[in-house]
Amino acid sequence: MPSLSRARSGALLAALLPAAALAQAPEPSATLPELQVIGQAPGSLTVPPVAEQRRQVEQAPAAVRFIEAGEFQNRRAFTLRDVLADTPGVFVQERYGQELRLSIRGSGIARGFHLRGIEVLQDGIPVNLADGSGDFYQIDPLASQSVTVHPGGNALPFGASTLGGAVNVVTPTARTAEAETILRAEGGTFGTWRLSGQVSRVWDDWDALANHSHASSDGWRQHSRGSYDQFNANLGYRISDSIETRFYAGVYETRQLLPGALSLSDALNDPRKANPQAVSGNQARNIWAERFANRTTVRLDAGQIDVDSWVVHKRLYHPIFQVIDQDGLTWGVAPRWTHGFTVAGLRNDLVIGARYFAGTNDADQYVNNRGSRGRQTLSSVQRAQNYEAYAENRLWVLPSLALVAGAKALRDERDYEDRGRGLTSSRGAVSLGRTYDGINPKIGLLWQPRPEVQVFTNLTRSQDVPDFSDLTQTVRGITGFVPLQAQRAWTVEVGTRGRLDRIGWDLTLFRSNINGQLLQFSTDPSVPAFTQNAGTTVNQGVEFALHGDLVRDLAAAGDRVTLGQVWTFNDFRFRGDPQYGDNRIAGLPPHVLRTTLTYAQPDRFFVRPALDWVPQGAWLDYANTVRANSYLKLGLEAGVTVGPGVTLFLDARNLTNKRYISDVTTIADARAPGANTTMFYPGDGRSLYAGTRIAF
Description:
Family: Belongs to the TonB-dependent receptor family.
Pfam family, one: Plug
Low-confidence stretches: 1-41, 422-427
CATH superfamily: TonB-dependent receptor, beta-barrel domain
Largest sheet: 22 strands, antiparallel, barrel
Protein name: TonB-dependent receptor
Membrane topology: Multi-pass membrane protein
Distance between the termini: 36 Å
Strand content: over 45%
Radius of gyration: 24 Å
CATH class: Mainly Beta
CATH topology: Maltoporin, Chain A
Number of domains: 1
Number of helices: 7
InterPro entries: Beta-barrel_TonB, Beta-barrel_TonB_sf, Plug_dom, Plug_dom_sf, TonB-dep_rcpt-like
């Protein structure tokens, strides 16, 4: 099995660590880490500087969000939850370690693990497997420079057109890195520690950067110990002033024990215990993955061409109800052309792209003998191919008004071969499959009355194709192929964002009318959920963020007190369903709020208490009979500069040790005879982390 050389990388970090320390700023308006930057390189053709990345995102006529790394470095910054905590419209549910679930506008609302309906991209290249499934283990927040969130059809410039859209994580290069060398060390409760180092160099037309993080934790709950190694590197070569190529490499190893789900009573009264079934089966999720990619950029008189190519190998060993043993390869290529020009004297911006990506996955299952393979119960091959073409055009009909139109055409093929065990053991091997086609249009308007103020609206069509976790379902220990329909939706959004003097805001209202929404229900939390197409459903809500300086120059020149507020409102419902009527769709709480109050003295220190409030817990079942509890959590973050480029940080969470439900696995009806309601995942208790970072 592939593995990182821990001895070699550990020795390197051990040699570098005596100098280590840490820095960052909690709010865009509290600029401590941004003012500690040693020097920002101007960027390159393949990866523009951060300021240009932000400008490109904020010109989009849609609810897109841009997060710089400085906004989360002074937190524990261990998962996407830490990265996206202050981002409206994004709901990240933590379970244990880096095991979490991501949902945007109800994407994968009832998926009991990871994600569906969202493309996670690293440097614009998909992390997802070819069938659309994916997880987050290769995303290292400490190896990121910026993160952008593109809900729904707003992700069209990347080629994505799912209900949830895309999240793109941009890693630094030697030409955009804060400093040539960055070191970090941190530790905290539950036996948690992490070491990270980054080295980058530029010489002539070449540049190179390497980043490695190792993290280990005993976990808050029993049987939740985990260790993670994440290595990311890139090498760039400037062939000429108009041509550049960049190679990416990544190696990732994850070993995570699973504590399992609990009943609501146990989750609130004895939350640190593990599910006995998880312990007896030594349930775990172990992943080994390697990623290689390239982006080549050619700047022409008529625009710019980017060509991405990638290959990802992933090995999964996952003992749960059975041992899931998979070995897969994903590969792809994606050319893209962008050009800005004038049409009848009007400014026009155009992007045209295509993607072909495919993959094959050997998916076997065995009887779980306390975490080891027993008798084989399934031998299968999963194959996926995707053919996509897309275009988006932005025409400025007035200096402050742009009309946006675009579309994506797709053909996705899913083929499943049972090699003769399990479902088809009596009649030999059998092949099944399904093809999904579609065209997803988009139209929108952007009004920009001032450079820092925008008002926008758009209408987009999305299409979510089932992945193999949906298409292969296990019933009474036998796994077979279920030819589900694609989920289709029309989404309209209206919003505004901007900055005026001391105030910044981001407000979007959206409504999605969905046909065939892919919903799950479970009978056992360790068994993959059953997936079905619902009838007509509606996902609608509000995404709101506000931050403003209440006071400036309070105790020292340049200091400020900043109030931040994030509110995500989810109103996801069935519409006239024969069984559930107009009930709420289970899985997500209707309101999620986060309030922060920051005092910062630039170049010196900041302190920020944070309040997370969920007024109503998520429904467990579609019948709306059992729900998680409401809760308030109080946290505190602080950072101090102790020398040039050297800072310390403190991150305290759940200070009142509140017992709450972080995530649920949905079921059909908790009142049904024999219904299993052991589907709740308790959130972590009181915790404290401290770290140090140095950039030189």
